[in-house]
Write a structure and sequence with these properties.
Elements lengths: L1 E3 L8 E7 L3 H9 L7 E7 L6 E5 L2 E5 L1 H4 L2 E4 L1
Antiparallel strand pairs: 1-6, 2-3, 2-6, 3-4, 4-5
Keywords: Iron
Protein name: Ferrous iron transport protein A
GO molecular function: transition metal ion binding
């Protein structure tokens, strides 16, 4: 089942299937290690839902909701 990272709930995990964004957002995500095949766990959501904190490749990463919406995950 495909789901965007911004639709995850805390504790949910999945594998990156593809990056849907274009240009700078896509490049920024790749530079931070968000690449197809990477295992991501959503750790926390801010009170208003932006930003989100994830665990990726052994480190914590904070993403804006707009960035997380570009990450298509396999659940």
């Amino acid at each position: 089942m495909e789901k965007k990272l911004n639709e995850f709930v805390p504790g949910q995990r999945g594998v990156v299937k593809r990056i849907a964004g274009e240009g700078n957002i896509r490049r920024r995500l790749f530079d931070m290690g968000v690449t197809p095949g990477a295992d991501i766990t959503l750790r926390k959501l801010a009170p208003l839902g932006d930003p989100v904190e994830v665990t990726l490749r052994g480190y914590e990463l904070t993403l804006r909701k707009s960035e997380a919406s570009c990450v298509v995950m396999e659940v």
